[in-house]
Design brief:
It is built from 6 helices and 8 strands; from the N terminus they run ββββαβαβαβααβα. It is an alpha/beta fold. The protein folds into 2 domains: about 90 residues, 2-Layer Sandwich (Double Stranded RNA Binding Domain), CATH 3.30.160; about 80 residues, Winged helix-like DNA-binding domain superfamily/Winged helix DNA-binding domain (Arc Repressor Mutant, subunit A, Orthogonal Bundle). It is globular. The two termini are about 30 Å apart. GO terms for molecular function: methylated-DNA-[protein]-cysteine S-methyltransferase activity.
């Protein structure tokens, strides 16, 4: 797997990278239903998830990054290609796409960066996730990072489970989370004769 792109954090509303004027969105059909992405003018994922409602996703974007206008597109180049590639079996494709989120704090940005390093087929617990984010005692903050993640699939919060092995929560439903985890499981080798 190539190194995942870091989650860029726009620090202030005046950050030129956070020019929140016009955003574009596109919806891709997936086995889990429609998957919509919102991109900024620089072609970075602002929000994504299993919905056909761009207004729902836009509400998840921090106000300093939220586009004032959304324009529909048939596709968003590398962004929609990454979703298609993921469902075709290139499970690392979303990690190669740039994402920008803003949290107001350093921990969430570090946590989102750490989450992008969690490999498909190797889910972690919230405790392990907190450790990856550099704060082993911050288990609740790690759960908050998952809950506040606007860029589902690209920042793969579905790869975090509870310590007891149960799924925990997922904005797009536990059925979708379970499907994704099963899809990402490595295939067992064929038995040799």
């Amino acid at each position: 797997m190539s190194a995942p792109s870091a989650v860029t954090s726009a620090t202030t509303p005046s950050d030129p990278a956070a020019d929140s004027g016009v955003g574009r969105f596109a919806t891709v059909g997936t086995p889990n239903g429609p998957f919509t992405l919102i991109a900024d003018q620089a072609g970075r994922v602002l929000a994504s998830g299993w919905t056909d409602d761009p207004a729902y996703l836009a509400a998840l974007v921090h106000r300093s990054l939220r586009p004032t206008t959304l324009e529909q597109s048939d596709e968003l180049g590398d962004l929609t290609d990454a979703v298609t590639a993921y469902y075709a079996g290139d499970l690392d494709a979303p990690a190669r796409v740039p994402v920008v989120q803003h949290s107001g704090g350093a921990f969430l940005t570090r946590a989102w960066d750490a989450l992008r390093t969690v490999a498909a087929g190797k889910p972690v617990t919230y405790t392990q996730f907190a450790r990856l984010a550099g704060e082993p005692a911050a288990v609740r903050a790690a759960a908050t990072a998952c809950a506040r993640n606007a860029a589902a699939l690209f920042v793969p919060c579905h790869r975090v489970r509870r310590s007891d092995g149960s799924l925990g929560g997922f904005r797009y439903g536990l059925d979708t989370k379970q499907w994704l985890l099963e899809f990402e499981e490595p295939e067992a080798p064929e038995p040799q004769d």
